[in-house]
Write a structure and sequence with these properties.
Protein name: 2Fe-2S iron-sulfur cluster-binding protein
CATH architecture: Roll
InterPro entries: 2Fe-2S-bd, 2Fe-2S-bd_dom_sf, 2Fe-2S_ferredoxin-like_sf, 2Fe-2S_ferredoxin-type, 2Fe2S_fd_BS, Beta-grasp_dom_sf, Diverse_Oxidoreductases
Strand order of the largest sheet: 2-1-3
Bound molecules: FE2/S2 (inorganic) cluster
Pfam family, one: Fer2
Keywords: 2Fe-2S, Iron, Iron-sulfur, Metal-binding, Oxidoreductase
Organism: Halomonas kalidii
CATH class: Alpha Beta
Largest sheet: 3 strands, antiparallel
Helix content: 25-40%
Strand content: 5-15%
Amino acid sequence: MCRSRCRCSGLWALRDVAGLTSTKFGCGMAQCGACTVHLDDEAVRSCVTPVAQAQGREITTLEAIGEDEIGSRVQQAWLDLGVAQCGYCQGGQIMSATALLKEAPRHPWAASASRACRR
Ligand code: FES
């Protein structure tokens, strides 16, 4: 059992305790995004987010993103455009895209400036 004050990452609490397995482990270093979830609509990398940081905040995973109007539209766009390849990181990408559109629904490129590729 995982207690809210434990130091384990939210990723393992979601997967192993809550059984919400849409959140994937990729790099474990906040780099790949496969583990992305929302804390109060903010996209976070759950692999490096301690459980204690989520205390008192609303956690949304891919399992429930379709209940959100914007999340539902993003999921439908993923299906319509056949985005998924192997599919492993698609959940994290949907979570990131939804958070971005919620942050700046009319001009998402403005919000993305701080998330630009660093290559
Ligand atoms: S597992 Fe890669 S960012 Fe968390």
